[in-house]
Amino acid sequence: MQYEAKNYEHLLGTKGFSDELLKNHFKLYQGYVANVNKIGSLLDTVEIGTPEYAELKRRFGWEWNGMRLHELYFENMKKDGGVIDTENSIYKKIIERFGSYENWEKDFKGTGAMRGIGWVALACDKEDGRLFNVWINEHDGGHLAGVKPLLVMDVFEHAFVLDYGLNRASYIDAFMNALDWGEVERRLAR
What we know:
Layout: H1 19-43, H2 51-75, H3 89-98, H4 101-112, E1 118-125, E2 131-137, E3 147-154, H5 161-164, H6 168-176, H7 181-189
Antiparallel strand pairs: 1-2, 1-3
Helix pairs in contact: 1-2
């Protein structure tokens, strides 16, 4: 089965994100989709148990996570986002877990401002519903087993350097102003 890259051009014009940065980011995402397809096809042609098979299996996870994390990232953004509805379940769960929205936001932003490349996710434990802000290193390390990502922020340099240089904090602020909290609420409900 071949995967198709999704179209996120509706995000062009989002305040705090130049169209050039977004277009470059879309191309990077499309590369992950293409590589998922290429590796999937190659896996059908190599002998199980060989070094080639093992390396392709390892690489598939990297490309897959790159594809899906980018989809989650783009899909939890919108041009006129940023404001959370205080009546939504996600807001209430944030307050329950972190004590206040401000405490959650400080922790989420602080996680995103850490040195290194990767992702930040607000995740929900499928067992007890507890929320966590987690760091996902690159694509493959830091995923908590049994949680579902509700909100995903890309903190690889390609997500911000073109517009913000090394000022990651300003990028994080722009991202927070582009959040689609309705999408986060839908993910929580699923």
